[in-house]
Design a protein that fits this description.
With 272 residues, this protein is of the alpha+beta class. It has a single domain (73-268), classed as Alpha-Beta Complex (endopeptidase fold (from Nostoc punctiforme)). It is built from six helices and six strands, in the order ααααααββββββ. The chain has helices at 3-39, 91-98, 106-129, 155-166, 188-198, 208-211; strands at 216-217, 223-227, 232-236, 239-241, 254-255, 265-268. It has a six-stranded antiparallel sheet with strand order 1-6-2-3-4-5. Strand 2 (223-227) and strand 3 (232-236) form a beta hairpin.
Amino acid sequence: MSFARRARAARWQVPVALALGVALAACGVAAEGARDASKTPQGGIGSSAATVGKPTPPSSAGGTRKEVADPEEANSYPAPASARHAAAAAPAKAAVTAVAAGALTDAEVRRALAETQAAQKRAASARKRQVLKPVPGGQSIGGDGTIPIPSGIPETVQKVIAGGNEIADFPYVFGGGHGSFVDNAYDCSGSVSYALAAAGLLGAPQTSGELEHWGKPGPGRYITVFANAGHTYMYVDGILFDTAGRSGVYASRWLVGSTDNTGYVARHWPGL
């Protein structure tokens, strides 16, 4: 083939090759998108939150992980169909918002340690003086439904309290908080799971039956989760976090006093 003919052929081959490459790339993107869509879990972040009043009971992909009906549901103020609540923030975001972390120099660490020790003494004294008053009609604490985050406790415990505060006034719906941590209603185990996840102590929502095996056996110093097949609650820095005993649909999950732990397994996180 002459040089002129080869040049003319090359001029046609380049655009054709480019067009073919673009087409193949588009097909690849479409196929990848289809694969991604097929892998997106239902109820995960990005899907619609559980509809208040029409929850989907928690279950695993194999259909074996199910939570039995909560015997304390009557005291949890299940939400009527008319109740609406905006979706919660991701647990980690709720914790970061309330508990800010930053790097310190050695001198700042020594100064902070001295301040922390002093704050611990003040916080311990304040807790002794603190008197939580329930809202009439139940055991929910008054005020805005949240509790103060003490400075003299481990940061992990602070984050659990921050997580509990984030959803303190959300309505109770069986199955709520199990399709995703980000929801607009939570049941007992969905509530405990959310608060624990705010501190990185859980990677996915768990049922009350699964929380019977969370962490280590026995009570903890700062956090003790009580669970059985039908219900779960916990004590965080001595304050009860429970969906039973609330004063209304949007009443706080932080409750005054204590409850009967008979029939429940006590679990704690190592060191806490």
